[in-house]
């Protein structure tokens, strides 16, 4: 049971496109999340996938695509803003399990 | 919008001392959780609590840890005899219990525990 985030630290300029990779290792039913932690703030849910359309849209223009065959749930945003500077956590909840398993996080730094 | 709140925001304690971290979950939520994040590491699950008992706990949650819902609003994490390696950010979370359905967890701002 693990969640892997491919990038630990990403630096982009404003208006660049963003894709943060996330893979998980569990073959059963999963619920998938991206959480964001802005500097000095607490974890906030960015978006979630429980079932249905594998392309989910979240707050602030973020979206993520669940690809079951690749065990992936990558986060995307077509044009980032300076205010997107934050740490992003991919997380998985296995079936009806209680706990959420987090990835190590990706620190995103947007240059103005 | 309702929020999970935690107190204190920062707690400094000496090794061997007991600490109690406090959380007020969202009022209509029935599942409560504690997670921790050691500096530079991932957020790790400690324990979940439902219907006044522990629902699930991780291997981190040993006999030094306990949780309690002392009244209708608070949810506490007690560490009986703190160790240096207990230094971390502790997050409380809560969620609605929806039998048979997935649900999201709402996180509090965290308590930074420093053990000296």
State the main characteristics.
heterodimer, A: 112 residues, mainly beta, Immunoglobulin-like, 4-stranded antiparallel β-sheet, 12 strands, 0% helix, 53% strand, B: 116 residues, 7-stranded mixed β-sheet, 11 strands
Describe the structure.
- The complex is a heterodimer of chains A (112) and B (116).
- In chain A, a hairpin with a 6-residue loop joins strand 5 and strand 6.
- Chain A has strands at residues 3-5, 9-13, 18-20, 22-24, 30-37, 44-49, 55-57, 63-67, 72-77, 86-94, 101-102, 106-111.
- By secondary structure, chain A is mostly beta strands.
- Chain A is built from no helices and twelve strands.
- The mean pLDDT of chain A is 92.
- The interface between A and B is medium-sized, with 24 and 24 residues.
Alpha carbon gyration radius of chain B: 14 Å
| CATH topology label of chain B | Immunoglobulin-like
User: Which architecture of chain B would the CATH scheme give at its second level?
Assistant: Sandwich
Strand content of chain B: over 45%
Mean pLDDT of chain B: 92
What structural class is derived from the secondary structure elements of chain B? mainly beta
Described by strand count, sense and barrel closure, the largest sheet of chain A is:
6 strands, mixed
- Overall 3D shape of chain A: globular
Assembly state of the chains shown: heterodimer
Provide the CATH topology of chain A. Answer: Immunoglobulin-like
Short account of what is shown:
The complex is a heterodimer of chains A (112) and B (116). With 112 residues, chain A is mostly beta strands. Chain A has strands spanning 3-5, 9-13, 18-20, 22-24, 30-37, 44-49, 55-57, 63-67, 72-77, 86-94, 101-102, 106-111.
How is this fold's topology laid out?
The complex is a heterodimer of chains A (112) and B (116).
Chain A: E1 3-5, E2 9-13, E3 18-20, E4 22-24, E5 30-37, E6 44-49, E7 55-57, E8 63-67, E9 72-77, E10 86-94, E11 101-102, E12 106-111
Parallel strand pairs in A: 2-12
Antiparallel strand pairs in A: 1-4, 3-9, 5-6, 5-10, 7-8, 8-9, 10-11, 10-12
Chain B: E1 5-7, E2 10-13, E3 19-24, E4 31-37, E5 43-50, E6 53-57, E7 65-68, E8 75-79, E9 88-95, E10 106-107, E11 111-115
Parallel strand pairs in B: 2-11
Antiparallel strand pairs in B: 1-3, 3-8, 4-5, 4-9, 5-6, 7-8, 9-10, 9-11
